[in-house]
Every structure is written in structure tokens, then in C-alpha cells.
Design goal:
The protein is α/β, with parallel strands linked by helices. It has a single domain, classed as Rossmann fold (3-Layer(aba) Sandwich). The protein has four helices and seven strands. It has a seven-stranded mixed beta sheet with strand order 1-7-6-2-5-4-3. A hairpin with an 8-residue loop joins strand 3 and strand 4.
């Protein structure tokens, strides 16, 4: 499915619609990969997910801290949303240092990963893949892959 958005509100709406159809896994974390150039809308989409899940704190890209964990209000599909940005990671070893095994095996987690293509071992994980394309200052194409 390919969707064109023209502002932040439309991107947030796409995230809300996506989340309403997302089924959580029963035996491991639900993982969403976000790929696209800088400024293509990955973090804006994640902000829409967070808002829909009831996160009240500001959601920003975890480019420098690598990972942010948001505890979700009771009654959600998930207990936590973990937002990871692999942009600054240089190799699989950097990923392993994060000790992601516990995070990825907890079925109550929604794990959103920006720049997953930077880490080879992520290609073996089952994840929903979403691609973002920057068209112009206002326009983005969001492609949710089957």
C-alpha cells in the first residue's frame, strides 16, 4: 500500500490507521522497520504511533541516544514502545552491545527501528517494513510493504 501525505497531521493519521490494523505477536515483540532518507518522515510517523498509543511526552529521534523506551498507558495492545535509530551504528557488534534479546523477545513490546538496513543481522527478523520517500518540503510517500 502506498500513501501520499502532505503534512504532519496526515502522516500521523497514516500511523494511527496502521496501528489500528497491526496485530501484535504472541511469542515475541512486534517489530516495525522504517526506511528512507533523512527527513523522509520516519520520526514523524513514530510520533503518530506514540500519540495514538497515549504517549504524552515529546517523541524525538533517538539518533544520538540510539534507543528510547516509552511506557504505555494500561489497556493498550503493548506495554512499551521502543524507538531505535540505527543511523549511527556502524556494524552488527554495535547492535549486540545494546543487548536487544530481552527487548525483542517480549511480546508486550512494540519495537520501531529506523535505519534497519544499517545492521545486517536485522534482516533475519520478522518485521513489518515501511518505506518513506521525501518528495518535497510538504509531500512524502509512505509505502507499507506486505
Amino acid at each position: 500500500m502506498e500513501i501520499e501525505t502532505h503534512n504532519l497531521e496526515e502522516t500521523h493519521q497514516v500511523a494511527e490507521d496502521f496501528l489500528s490494523k497491526l496485530k501484535n505477536n504472541l511469542d515475541r515483540s512486534t517489530i516495525v522497520f522504517l526506511s528512507g532518507d533523512l527527513g523522509a518522515g520516519k520520526t514523524a510517523f513514530t510520533q503518530g504511533l506514540a500519540k495514538t498509543l497515549g504517549v504524552t511526552e515529546e517523541v524525538t529521534s533517538p539518533t544520538f541516544v540510539i534507543q528510547k523506551i516509552y511506557h504505555l498507558p494500561v489497556g493498550q495492545k503493548f506495554n512499551k514502545m521502543i524507538h531505535i535509530d540505527c543511523y549511527r551504528l556502524e556494524n552488527d557488534r554495535d547492535w549486540e552491545v545494546l543487548n536487544m534479546d530481552n527487548i525483542l523477545t517480549d511480546p508486550t513490546n512494540l519495537v520501531v527501528v529506523e535505519w534497519p538496513e544499517k545492521i545486517d543481522q536485522l534482516s533475519t527478523l520478522e518485521a513489518v517494513k515501511i518505506e518513506f520517500k521525501f518528495i518535497d518540503e510538504n509531500t512524502r510517500i509512505i509505502k507499507i510493504l506486505p
